[in-house]
Amino acid sequence: MASIASTYPQGLLFPPALMQAVRERFLQIEHDHQGRPRLYFDNAGGSFRLKAAVERFALIDAVPDNTERIHPVARELQAIQAAGTADFRMMLHAEGGSVFAALTASAAMFDMVRAIAQNVPGRNLVTTALEHPSSYDAMERYARETGRELRVAPSNPQTGGVDVEAIVRLVDADTVLLNVIYASNISGAKLDLEQIVARARAIKPDLYIVVDAVQHAPHGLIDLRKTPVDGINLAPYKFFGCRGSGLAWLSERAALLPHHKLAGKSANFWDLGSSSPWQFAVLQEVADYVCWLGQQAVLELPGLWPSAEAAASRRALFEAGMERIALHERALLARLLNGSAAQPGLRALPGVQVYLDHDDLASRDLIIALGVDGLDCTQAVHEYGLRGVTVYERSVASLYSRRMLESLGLQGAVRVSPLHCNSPAEVDAFLRITQELAQAQLAAA
Fold it and tell me: Which domains does the chain have, with CATH numbers?
């Protein structure tokens, strides 16, 4: 797949027919739930839902039966959970280990950090300044409770990410746990997880590593055979699914660490109580959709993808689908930054600042942090809202943003986060609105 990124460094938009087919599979792209037209560019906070996922949720959640029974309906629910668990492993390219469901991905992260911090010997824990509070606060809490040093790798204000060297230089033979985010939910910068894992394990071969993949999972491929970690979490609602579920995978050794569980369950079982079968049914629909997109990619770009026969496996189709998503989103990112014949991009708009900007689009997910001269980020988000655009303010006033922003040298930013089901026409509309907004501020100055 490496040749695909090099062949299309600026990405590749979906052809019009595929763009339309993709959009037809999602809810509320052009209108909100009350039918009001809007441009929703806050997918790093929420996310567009697949119609099939929402329909399957309603269908399965309506079934009253308990899964822990022996009658046919219970067996059907058990099969759904088993298939969804298999798909989760497929999506991660993970073998063995344990899958568990929680109310949120944040809850799953706290559980994983606690089990490792409380049961693995050592003197320090390592994380980064860019972590989501569910990771950073868990690391800080259990470092304090277990009397360990918390080491924090600084951000790189030029790239918006964290350099590999900044992380691995904090790891030593006494490190208990390394916890890193896959991609920043402020800048979109992807961390080089393959290098981080390899170099950290070269220092301490049995180091425990946990990854927050919530932000990155909808935008790029995850392959735990290339990045063998001990724990990773996803939030299905940010991955075209439904809210109210968090899923995590643990390696064999991590799953066996002491943790909260019913005494009669097996040593590597992590669910507390009965998991809702709809969580796994929804995950199946997400996997089905990405595999469908992979089938379209194999037909569209036969010279770059495996043949249809070679791509017959579910994992191969999933890989093709995720890579095609990444290519389309990279093209949207390039269009946002550089514009087109129809509309200048953000980089060319007077009165607009693109923060944490650099040219290596392959190292960035589809997120942009920007500012409009004359407006703080909260005012700018309000002005966008008046024009029918939903974006999000990242401000130092927020507990979800302060540490990350300060590490990047920012007081605030407007976060713009489209999704692959957004079209180039919507990008152009956003650019026109941004240009009008900036011009109005310049005229008033």
Answer: 2-49+326-440 (3.90.1150.10), 55-283 (3.40.640.10)
